[in-house]
Amino acid sequence: MIMLALSGSARSNGALNAGYICFEALLQAYDAAIQKKRPMALVTGFLRSTFVFLPFFAFQAYGYLNICVHGDTDELRPWCKAKLPLLYSFIQSHYWGVGFLRYFQVKQLPNFLLASPALSLAVYSIVHYTKLLHQLFQSTSIHEQIIAIVDGRLVEAHESSDVATVLKSEISTGLHNKKQGYWRTEV
């Protein structure tokens, strides 16, 4: 959690790491609801997420206090007058030219061509996964199908293991010896 908070202090998109903590809290709350326990995971998840967002909020408050409140009132920046004054967003859009869909320009075409193999693999994977999910949701009982898949994988893993191979060979040897008329005895 501390490392995620440090990432949020270095870059504003580090605050998005709180999503991992929120997801974990939701899973724990779901497990608690299934087991009929008190879902304290939501409270701890909220507190942890707040801790991850804290550096981002501290930077915004620091900038607002220094520039908008204690700064020169004659030269207030436009972001000081906004309903939600975010310093980092103003810096990105005004000085760096960063904004929603501003990256999609003709001069960026070589970058998109370089990224096209990874993008096409990602699109293929998403389409394949969506088809598998569609097949899964068409079944009558999703829970039974998931259990069957997991059980099938466990059986396949056991059958491909060395222990299963040794056991199969001992059983087949024992059956062969029984047909021959002699049986191996253990000491």
Automatic annotation (TrEMBL):
Entry's localization field: Endoplasmic reticulum membrane
Single Gene Ontology BP annotation: GPI anchor biosynthetic process
Species annotation: Aegilops tauschii subsp. strangulata (Goatgrass)
An example Gene Ontology molecular-function term: alpha-1,6-mannosyltransferase activity
PANTHER family in the record: GPI MANNOSYLTRANSFERASE 2
Protein name per UniProt: GPI mannosyltransferase 2
Pathway where it operates: Glycolipid biosynthesis; glycosylphosphatidylinositol-anchor biosynthesis
Pfam family, one: Mannosyl_trans2
Cellular component GO terms, alphabetical: endoplasmic reticulum membrane; mannosyltransferase complex
Function: Mannosyltransferase involved in glycosylphosphatidylinositol-anchor biosynthesis.
Family from the record: Belongs to the PIGV family.
Enzyme class, broadest EC rank: transferase
Lineage summary: Eukaryota, Viridiplantae, Streptophyta, Embryophyta, Tracheophyta
